[in-house]
Design brief:
By secondary structure, the protein is an all-beta fold. The strands form 3 sheets. A 5-stranded mixed β-sheet has the order 1-6-7-4-5. Strand 4 and strand 5 form a beta hairpin. The chain is globular, with a radius of gyration of 21 Å. It starts with a strand and ends in a 5-residue tail after the last strand.
């Protein structure tokens, strides 16, 4: 028996996510909570703590392939939300064959093409004028921190040969300008005040997949995932 759950395609396609990271849907499964993340290379990566265990000790696989950062833990490469078909998160009591985990196990299955060409495009916008102030906001500053985010997404898939081979590709581009609360030294008064420093982020994700039904019982798949991130945050 396994303690955990499966997040299916219907939930991934319909539930809203702030930032569009599919791993946040793991919080729908009892026993999971957001884990703190202190490494500067993982500021924009979602880490899940299962049953109170260390989130960076979890094991993440994509289509059966290892997707762990062996240095600091957590996912090595993010996957576009539109490229995820479903994923399983096992919080406890999973098979030893799925080991290499000091916490939970997340097994991701990416989408594949079908016998008809299908695709979609999207644009998501979030702006400071449409949201509440952050919990760390200091009203004594008499200033509102800057924030705006645009995310552009697209995916398309179809057949190479009907009932024999299929292709699929998805991309996501996030452009964000945020602000972090920082200290500002005043040499003349020998004091440190508070101000907001800009924290830009540009994150590009892509996943491409090719599947071939070699025989009635054997299927061969090829997948390539890419992440290019350029950001400035409190830890850097």
């Amino acid at each position: 028996s396994v303690a955990g759950g499966v997040i299916g395609a219907h939930q991934i396609a319909n539930l809203p996510l702030n930032g569009r990271n599919y791993l946040e849907l793991s919080l729908l499964v009892p026993g999971n909570s957001p884990a703190p993340n202190f490494d500067p290379t993982k500021v924009n990566t979602v880490v899940i703590s299962s049953a109170g265990q260390v989130g960076r000790g979890s094991n993440v696989s994509v289509d059966g392939a290892d997707n762990n950062d062996d240095v600091v833990g957590g996912s090595l490469v993010n996957i576009p939300e539109d490229a995820v078909q479903e994923f399983q998160i096992a919080t406890n009591r999973f098979s030893a064959a799925l080991g290499r985990s000091g916490s939970s196990l997340t097994n991701v299955v990416t989408r594949q093409g079908s016998n008809s060409i299908h695709g979609e495009v999207g644009m998501y916008e979030r702006d400071k004028s449409l949201q509440g102030l952050p919990a760390t906001y200091d009203p004594s500053l008499h200033a509102t921190p800057a924030f705006h985010r645009q995310q552009y997404t697209g995916d398309i898939g179809g057949p190479v040969k009907a009932d024999k081979a299929w292709w699929f590709a998805a991309v996501e581009d996030r452009q964000q300008l945020g602000a972090d609360l920082v200290g500002l030294r005043n040499s003349s008064t020998q004091t440190i005040g508070k101000t907001f420093a800009t924290a830009p982020l540009h994150d590009f994700l892509s996943t491409a997949r090719l599947d071939w039904q070699a025989t009635g019982r054997d299927r061969i798949g090829f997948r390539e995932s890419l992440q290019l991130e350029d950001d400035l945050s409190q830890s850097q």
